[in-house]
């Protein structure tokens, strides 16, 4: 009886599904095929970006164009009419700004979601998949061609590119909008970016956060400036090369070759990385103006990290953590050789890096009240692609130099950014732990317009020029690409009359506002950054973290990490634990926020 009923029930089920499919099929039949549009423009009509919803514009010599809407879920001449399923999907999708306000508000539902594992998993699955869907995987573009090339995928010396460059035959640098010549960078910097008076971040963000941002992201933001701003020296994501080095040559140079550990030396009773003289063969690859002394410069996974105390601090902590993990593994597997201990510890460290980045760092950055969790298993079996490339727009978006204050107070001393450049001396004058406490109690700057300190302006200047060399499209094109509504005018962008007037003066047309300029001049949001920066950077960031191979179904299991103990280190990692395990004097109260009561 039971089986008969089950059989009948299933048959009915199939019939209903088939009927629904048939109905959808008929509603979903494509409207007229994409057709050629003749224009009387005297330029390539694709320069005006006529195709919406990620349709691809293809033009012909008679100034006609066609929008290729294949697989966009839209059809029509400019890919503007939604197919039935797209329409349903879009009507269910919340408005990004409303969703962001909800996610960052103290809503009772978040308490429920945070405390019910099944709901929390659903929320994380939604976040991982909806963000991941917004990133091309595989990558389609690089910066030397305004159309898809096979090189974009196979030539990994290129950064990926989310929107192809503005073709260089277009009437203006932004396509058709705006002036023939973009505003002078120095004037732009003076009017829009330069700090008048330090504006602290309103979320109590400290320098431990600022340096985490820089330390973590420089493992994959590694422009090869010698070759050009479109090329990278790095790989496709979170490879922990900021701890171990990006070439095998470099990695070998800093290994101890015993018990899986990294080389270390003891200074005042504490473990520190070796000096360059102790690491023959290390690739330094620093620009010639950077002073390097083999006897006193530290040898780290990333050579630049020996040039700023805050970056050095994280390198010391991660080196100690790696060596600590090696001891745990050796205890568990006394029979393992150096090679196996090293590689397994490296997988654990990579897991810890991702866990801390999501649960401590992105949690603070986003100010979401939903607790973010590193749970790769929630997307196993879904359409999520475990592959990633770094997009050059992401590198530009992440130029977060406004976080950097003019200086740092350490006990009774004060160091300006330039006092600290090229030297890690302050760490030894005060001691590592005191320096960490100082990083925790000094405020970082607000990520906004008019907050770039003098010391970092040269890097901003070069970045803006680079974005013009590789012909980024304007902010509104990126907003469209990431499903955000476009800005209608300068007030809509900034919410600030003076800034709106300055930008109006400089650009004339909202459609001509450059990518980075639009990101930093947008009105405040409840996060550390304005909304577009969250909703454009978020997809690249989530994709980069979760597409890591360790998150994929055949990797994400105890044996990858040397067994249950190693897997547990990954699954319980936190900023607090990282510091507690590796500071001499304890870590109470240290987080990404200044302690309560700090001025
Ligand atoms: C603490 C003070 C800082 C100094 C002195 C500094 C200095 C520099 C320098 C010298 C460059 C190379 C620029 C060039 O050659 O044109 C650079 C690039 C960059 N900086 Fe900073 N920076 C600082 C803080 C930060 C912070 C907090 C972030 C946030 C994550 C950041 C993000 C970047 C990025 C993404 C690049 C491009 C890297 C690449 O593609 O290779 N920087 N910075
Ligand atoms: C398609 O876009 C072009 C250029 O923006 C516009 O002139 C034209 O009216 C649009 N056509 C339709 C049917 O939307
Ligand atoms: C990648 O492209 C650049 C620029 O065209 C070229 O110089 C380089 O040789 C290419 N590399 C490979 C591996 O094809
Ligand atoms: C950077 O580019 C230069 C010039 O093409 C090349 O010689 C060098 O090998 C590149 N560096 C790295 C680390 O890829
Ligand atoms: C420096 O400050 C730390 C707390 O941030 C404190 O524990 C330490 O005693 C101070 N050292 C000196 C020499 O004042």
TrEMBL record:
Pathway: Lipid metabolism; prostaglandin biosynthesis. The keyword Thylakoid does not apply. One of its GO terms (biological process) is cyclooxygenase pathway. Its main location: endoplasmic reticulum. Keywords: Dioxygenase, EGF-like domain, Endoplasmic reticulum, Fatty acid biosynthesis, Fatty acid metabolism, Heme, Iron, Lipid biosynthesis, Lipid metabolism, Metal-binding, Microsome, Oxidoreductase, Peroxidase, Prostaglandin biosynthesis, Prostaglandin metabolism, Signal. Residues 42-80 form the EGF-like domain. Substrate binds at residue 131. GO terms for cellular component: endoplasmic reticulum membrane; neuron projection. It is an enzyme of class 1 (oxidoreductase). Its cofactor is heme b. Its EC number is 1.14.99.1. The keyword Lipid biosynthesis applies. It is found in: Endoplasmic reticulum membrane; Microsome membrane. It catalyses: (9Z,12Z)-octadecadienoate + AH2 + O2 = (9R)-hydroxy-(10E,12Z)-octadecadienoate + A + H2O; (9Z,12Z)-octadecadienoate + AH2 + O2 = (13S)-hydroxy-(9Z,11E)-octadecadienoate + A + H2O; (9Z,12Z)-octadecadienoate + AH2 + O2 = (13R)-hydroxy-(9Z,11E)-octadecadienoate + A + H2O; (9Z,12Z)-octadecadienoate + AH2 + O2 = (9S)-hydroxy-(10E,12Z)-octadecadienoate + A + H2O. PROSITE patterns: EGF_3, PEROXIDASE_3. One of its GO terms (molecular function) is peroxidase activity. Heme b binds at residue 401. Residues 1-29 form the signal peptide. The active site is at residues 218, 398. Belongs to the prostaglandin G/H synthase family. Homodimer. This is prostaglandin-endoperoxide synthase. It comes from Hirondellea gigas.
